Inverse folding.
């Protein structure tokens, strides 16, 4: 599988310093690691290979993310 990195029209924040294993949570524009530190495996279903790890968001982080979301 080939991934093509297409430059975006607008430059976003520089996250080059972020560790990508496991991937942190992005809540209200800020990267954060939950206190519990629990992770989930991201599995590529075609091969069942674990391709990444992500932090599992506990209820407090989910509530914080919902509260920061813009209204519709």
């Amino acid at each position: 599988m080939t991934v093509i990195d297409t430059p975006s029209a607008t430059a976003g924040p520089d996250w080059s310093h972020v560790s990508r294993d496991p991937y942190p949570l992005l809540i209200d524009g800020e990267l954060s690691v939950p206190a519990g530190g629990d992770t989930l495996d991201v599995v590529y279903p075609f091969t069942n290979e674990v391709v990444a790890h992500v932090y599992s968001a506990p209820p407090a982080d989910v509530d914080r993310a919902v509260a920061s979301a813009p209204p519709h």
About this structure: Residues 59-68 form the longest helix (10 residues). The beta strands are 25-27, 30-32, 39-44, 49-55.
